[in-house]
Each structure stands twice: as structure tokens, then as C-alpha cells.
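[step 3/7] fold_predict: job queued, chain A
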Amino acid sequence: MTTPSRASQEALADKPDDVTARVGLGIAQYRLGALDEAERSMTDALRREPGLPVAHLYLGLVAILRGQDAAAGASLRRYAAGTAPRVAADVERALRALGSGPVTLEMRQYVASSLEDQSAWAGELAATQQALAHSELRRITDDRTLLLLPRACRCQ
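[step 4/7] structure written:
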């Protein structure tokens, strides 16, 4: 069985400049708790594609877990700039909570996990909206095709 981490490493071996594989590797490393490696992978991805929101998200999550709230704020605000208003509001709420006083590691883990889940939810919602729009466009096109066929047909 190929793990996401192994698949990303193999993709990077074939194409070292593949940003998608680098981000995939970074996410796998983050989820395995290898924060130094995840940070390196995301930083490398940002060198190749500076505006990549997911890389900013995971750099922010790493910083949250390390207690580096200023760095977390900078990365997460870059991530939130390109997201839905609800996601951006949740990022700001999380940063205010982290800045409200001493925060336990357990609370940091909870905040990081919540932001990661919010990001996944936002991605799933965007994909669903895109699929629905595509489906609606296809339906309209199919309807028009059906309406045009009888007029275009010269058979009697």
C-alpha cells in the first residue's frame, strides 16, 4: 500500500519542481507530526509558487503548534486573504483566541485542527458548487440540443 507521503516523495523524485507533490508531502508530514519537515516542504512550495494558499495555511498551523503566534498570524492571514468570508472570519477568531493569554498545547492542537477542518470543508464546498454549476450548464446545453434537433432535422 502506498502512503500519501511515499506517493508524494516518488512524484518529487520524478519531478522535483512539482508543487502539488511538494504540498502533498508537506501535508502528510504535518499530519504525522513531523513539523520541521512539513515546514521545509511548504517553504519550498512557496519558493516555487509564492501565493499558494494551502502552503500558507500549513505554515500557519505549524506555527500555532509551536506557539509562534506572530508567525501563525502572518501565514494564516495570507491564507485567509483568498478564502471565503466565513473562513477568513474563523481565522481571525482563532488568532484572537490565541492572543488572549496563555494557551495550552491541547488548545493549540484544537485550534489547528479546527482550521484545517474548516479549510477542507471550504474546499469540498467549492468543489460541490463547481460540480453543480457544471451539471447545470450540461443540463441547459442538453435541453437546448434537444430543442434544436427537431428544427435541424430535415427528415419527413
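[step 5/7] annotate
The CA atoms of residues 81 and 88 lie 7 Å apart.
Residues 4-127 form a domain with the Serine Threonine Protein Phosphatase 5, Tetratricopeptide repeat fold (CATH 1.25.40.10).
exit 0
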